[in-house]
């Protein structure tokens, strides 16, 4: 079971009564590469740069290659349709003398992905190879995408009549899938009261390695609406990459109702008569008289 320290110059000496002879030979112990440090996993926001590093030892000095989903990468290659180039920078450590068992034979490599796109997500492999064998380690890159609202409704002004239920729905694309919360006039809604109901759902299959985005939606219901429920309701979609919001204007109309009816009166002939009537509603009702 040879070890690195067995490397060296060995001499074979043959002797007898007539004399001696010798032969010298060099023994070199190759060492299978071993990756001693590497980026484990990485996640960046769409458009930002992603970086991986990998360091290996071995003898002879290991050559480091990078693969994405088992496809070998080269510097300046575009790894996705319309994607930006990658940069691979290699460096060495130590003098790495094959005949010197104490010498250091280190290799290091950095992979840079510029201006990341969604399809850059995947499994990246650092592979170190020499004449003795190879070693590899795997890293996962996830491209996070800031939520954005899709299929925006043309009309975000909603009018209902009390006490009908108001329903507001928003849909956002993102990666990972967005979570939602609602505000009314810039104040966070409290869902733990019976006034409101919020439901969220993912309407498209979502994988962190897929090129597309995750589409999810949220629906807000406001029960037994009254005039004071009128206001600006904001749907906020958020994930690890950021957030986006969309506002809806809700108007709750209330049918007119008389709050102070006229009183029955008895007056003398030719006397002036004054009658008063008050009503409320939303919008403000117009009062007219019939006889």
Would you summarize the structure shown here?
This protein is 0% helix and 56% strand.
| Beta strands, count | 20
Write down the overall geometry. rod-shaped
Helical run tally = 0
What pattern of helices and strands is seen along the backbone?
EEEEEEEEEEEEEEEEEEEE
| Residues in helices, as a percent range | under 10%
Keywords:
single chain; 291 residues; mainly beta; eight-stranded mixed β-sheet; six-stranded mixed β-sheet; 20 strands; rod-shaped
Tell me about this structure.
- There is one protein chain.
- By secondary structure, the chain is mostly beta strands.
- It has strands at 8-16, 19-27, 31-38, 41-45, 50-59, 63-68, 71-72, 86-93, 106-113, 122-130, 133-149, 157-161, 166-175, 179-184, 187-188, 196-202, 214-222, 231-239, 242-260, 278-282.
- Strands 4, 6, 7, 10, 11, 13, 16 and 17 form an eight-stranded mixed β-sheet that branches. Strands 12, 14, 15, 18, 19 and 20 form a six-stranded mixed β-sheet that branches. It has a four-stranded antiparallel β-sheet with strand order 3-5-9-8, with no helix packed on it.
- It is rod-shaped, with a radius of gyration of 38 Å.
- Mean pLDDT is 87; it is low at 78-82.
């Amino acid at each position: 079971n040879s070890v690195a320290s067995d490397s060296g110059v060995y001499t074979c000496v043959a002797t007898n009564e007539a004399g001696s002879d010798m032969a010298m030979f060099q023994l070199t112990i190759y060492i299978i590469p071993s990756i001693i440090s590497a980026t484990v996993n990485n996640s960046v926001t769409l458009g930002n740069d992603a970086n991986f590093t990998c360091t290996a030892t071995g003898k002879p000095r290991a050559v480091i290659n990078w693969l994405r989903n088992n496809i070998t990468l080269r510097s300046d290659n575009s790894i996705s349709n319309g994607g930006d180039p990658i940069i691979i920078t290699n460096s060495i450590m130590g003098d790495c003398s094959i005949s010197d068992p104490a010498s250091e034979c280190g290799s290091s490599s950095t992979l840079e992905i510029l201006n990341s796109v969604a399809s850059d997500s995947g499994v990246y492999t650092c592979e170190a190879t020499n004449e003795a064998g190879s070693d590899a380690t795997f890293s996962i890159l996830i491209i996070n995408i800031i939520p954005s609202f899709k299929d925006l409704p043309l009309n975000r002004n909603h009018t209902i009549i009390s006490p009908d239920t108001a329903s507001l729905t928003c849909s956002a694309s993102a990666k990972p899938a967005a979570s939602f919360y609602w505000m009314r006039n810039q104040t966070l809604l409290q869902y733990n009261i019976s006034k409101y109901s919020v439901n969220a759902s993912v309407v498209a299959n979502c994988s962190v390695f897929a090129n597309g985005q995750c589409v999810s939606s949220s629906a807000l219901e406001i029960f037994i609406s009254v005039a004071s429920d009128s206001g600006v309701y904001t749907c906020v979609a958020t994930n690890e990459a950021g957030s986006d919001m969309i506002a809806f204007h809700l108007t709750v109309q209330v049918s007119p109702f008389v709050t102070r009816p006229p009183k029955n009166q008895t007056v003398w002939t030719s006397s002036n008569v004054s009658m008063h009537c008050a009503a409320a509603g939303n919008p403000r009702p117009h009062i007219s008289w019939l006889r």
